[in-house]
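Section handout 9: paired folding examples.
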Amino acid sequence: PGIFLSFIITIILTYLILHIFNSTDLLMQSKPRLYILFSGIFLIHIFGLYDDLRNVKAPLKLFFQILAAAIVTGGGYLIHSLTIPYLGTINLGLFAYPVTIIWIVGISNAINLIDGMDGLAGGICAFAALSMGIIALIQGQILIAVLCFAFFGSITGFLFYNYPPAKIFMGDSGSLFLGFSLSVFPLMGISKASAFGTLIVPITLLLIPIMDTAGAILRRIRQKRPIHSPDKEHIHHKLLDMGLSERQILSVIYGISFYLGVVSITSVVLPKEINVYLIMVVWIGSMLGYWFLSYIDAKRHLSQKEEE
């Protein structure tokens, strides 16, 4: 609840300060849609808090995640098209609604899944929020910039107490709120001026949890286990098995997140011809790195079984 409350309080204080200087139009030019946005955010946070207290079953979790995402999409926050480099742009039409819901629910769960170590999910989200805020400023999107910077400040304050050894923990109420918000902020206008469309920037910023979640889904399908079943084969588990400490793992992940942030900011500044190669190299390099890490971890487990 601490991250959520500090975010809301920051937004309210920002509004009051702007009101003093008669500049509230910077924040309230989309007032009705903001109410819808915060309704979805509030619902996902409250349900996450309930889940932390009662440990809700997976189908009910999914239902409320879809409901919160549907509220937001109903307010007009949509992925209207998908841009594929070299192939062109696909206009989604009515499919924009289910595609957007899948995107929001997917990112919400990706952050939730990677929240398995102190400081990990919060750090990734902090770098993503800061980068989105800078991109929004570059594009003149003041409202989105305010939201992203308030979001970044709230997470940073939390990380002071969540960094190993942690004194407080995030829980589903925090991780779902972070993932949900970071999936919706780009739909407010961030990256529309990007060479590749709406999703490329947030995908790049959140590449680590996205790869980790995709790997977990494929792994559980291959092992014929339920997708929502837990395991200890996430990225941080693999790095722990290699002998890295929690702080060393965070240094590695934070470094990669910082680099992905720089690449994302660059992608909305430099010419399209350069960005095509930059984004593709980063994506391919990240996927090869994840595959190599998984390969080393699998070989290590195999060697341990043979010794037994």
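Moving on to protein 2 of 2.
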Amino acid sequence: QLQLQYEENRKELLANISHDLKTPITGIKGCVEAVMDGIADTKEKLDKYMNMIYKKADDMDHLIDDLFLFSKLDLKRVPFHFENIDIVDYLTDCVDELRYDPNLNGVKMNFLYDGKEPVTVVADREQLRRVIMNIVDNSIKYKRDKTLEIGFDLIVGEKDVTIAICDNGPGIEREALQRIFERFYRAEKSRNTETGGSGLGLAIVKQIIEEHGGKVWAESQAGKGTTIYFTLQKSKVMK
């Protein structure tokens, strides 16, 4: 039964990869054919088709990068460089950097933590940044017309910390909420790469956090936003 499930998962994975690669390729072919047929008979039209080709090729590039990383994580072939990190300073710097990111222009960012003492966790700096960026990117893809607000919260426990990243987006339906960390899953039914990205972003988040010995989950209410939580282990204090 387990072998049959693995085989079914493999078939679904191949079908999703084929679909998500074929979509931009079809778009690129359509643009090239339009240029070859002379439809792009002005500089403005030619520029439009060239920009569309570039966008579709860029989508494919991101998909292949995500797929390559996901596969390496799945095979345990990504090296992790764990170190003791002051998570308060790390999140402060990360949020400050996001505020000045030109791609996030108009997005409000804030970080809430009222503690006074530094909090040290064991983490890989680079992979932790990837986790944060994937979660933020997910919020941006589904933002509504109103100003998007993304808040970071740090909850300190006895042995670990919980980081919460919340947004005021459209939220996720209860049925979809249980599946958002699955590979290639998208909450909207059309598998639209314009809004849904590769469908691997949150699956990568889950793999990275589990490699850290933590866990990840989400809470959401349709129309009111989504919060994604993940835990990191605190550093052991030497006595």
